[in-house]
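FW: tagging you since you asked about this chain on Friday. Here's the raw sequence from the shared folder, copied in full. Didn't touch anything.
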Amino acid sequence: MSKYIFVTGGVCSSLGKGVAAASIGSLLEGSGLKVAMMKCDPYINVDAGNMNPYQHGEVYVTADGAETDLNLGNYARFVNIELSSLNSLTTGKIYEEVIKNERSGRYNGRAVQVIPHITDEIKRRILTVGTKSEADVVIIEIGGTVGDIESIPFLEAARQLIREQGRGNTLSVHLTLVPAITGGELKTKPTQHSVKKMQELGIQPDILLCRTEVPLEDDMRKKIASFCNVEKESVFTSIDVDKTIYELPLAFHRQGLDKVILTKLGRKDCRTDVSTWLNFIEKLNRPKGRVRIGLLGRKTIFDDCYKSVRESLFHAAVTAHGLELIICKIDAEEIESASDINPFFKDIDGIIVPDNYGQRGFLGLLQAVRYARENDVPFLGIGLGMQLMAIETARNLLGHEDADSTEFMQNSTYPVISLPEEQTGLTASGLMRLGNGVMKLSEDSKLAHIYGKTRITERQRGKYTFDRTYTADMEAGALTISSYSETDGRAEAFEWKNHPWGIGVQFHPEFISRPANPHPVFAAFIGAAFDMQKKE
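HL: got it, structure written out here
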């Protein structure tokens, strides 16, 4: 039978519940346990697919095509698990299912209420993850902050499960803030109030993770334990890491968090292997060189907006090449208004244009693609970044000034990018392609060399696609199609001819890169950028 760990947060948002939950999962996996992870999001959206990434962060896509919160990406990078739609739960999903059941008459005419109907559905979903995964431990992160009205049904469901499953089979891990005021004095009152709120909801935290700037002294831990009704040995510091979030599992391990959790779950005989993280941090701290990558986007580029892309570049630089990674954020809108774009790319070893959202900055992105092509700078385009390679070729090499995507210009006379139903010979609807897809690679392509095979499985997320009517034109313009979808024949990758390293992919390799196992496309891109640097 699975055991369940509920991870909650208090005081304020963005304390790092997702990374803390993922770190716990990593430590338990390193102890030989099978782990499953789950995110409960209080928002009423059914999923994250329509949420603005510039406000909410990237949308992470699972193998079965679920559009989820970015924290599932953290889970996948920290723990060796295959995530699916079961691992992402929202208020919208719960109410959608309960309302469907009510319309079908499954509640026998009873009034449908938050308790028991909503909480029962939440509990059913959580227990289903344990049953289907056959995991030893299921870690459930409850989004939002304790005290938010939206989170109450999830917390009530957690309270009920803790009572029903028993203390030896469940744990409550609560992440709080211990702020430092002027002079550096740490204040515990926010943590006390946060735990008090949890207790009012009927949940007594078993373990406290205190987010601080400096490690907590024993006297401070004892004070927190006394006021919050936990053992001093169950009060831990979730300290600000120096370089990377991948230091957190080691920080928790040094404090003995995994030992306390295993003991409370009746598995104190387990020993935790953290060698994977030790090896990664060792490479990070002893770089053999440095590589500078220009990341193109809008001025509102947040780290979370391209979280998986940034992490994939980081994995490739550190693990595959032993390099220090410098990411230079370049504003596409500023490029649009600049008379000289060369300064934007000064000392840049490689350029990456990830999937962008909306038309703002479009011309700046296009200029960046042209700069990379004309100056032999290693280039990687993902999603829209790939599509821009076709548009740039059509405009600047083939003379079609209004070449475009119908996403941005419906009346283009040369729509190289469009919806499938707008293309001759394709009858597929304009629904988003989501989840794993199988692609074939051209045998003589760079991609085939990178993968070492000609048939691959990659994660997809997109509606618009290259119109193969223009294939011959692209070939004449020095752009070749190097990958096709095995399912519907759509173009999945471009490569520039006579260019050191210029590749665009319609799929999203960033979703399957891992710290100890970098994605080969990112590894090859970083390698090409570093080689170019050495030639200069």
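FW: DSSP finds 18 helices and 21 strands in the chain.
HL: agreed, and The longest strand covers residues 289-297.
FW: great, closing this out.
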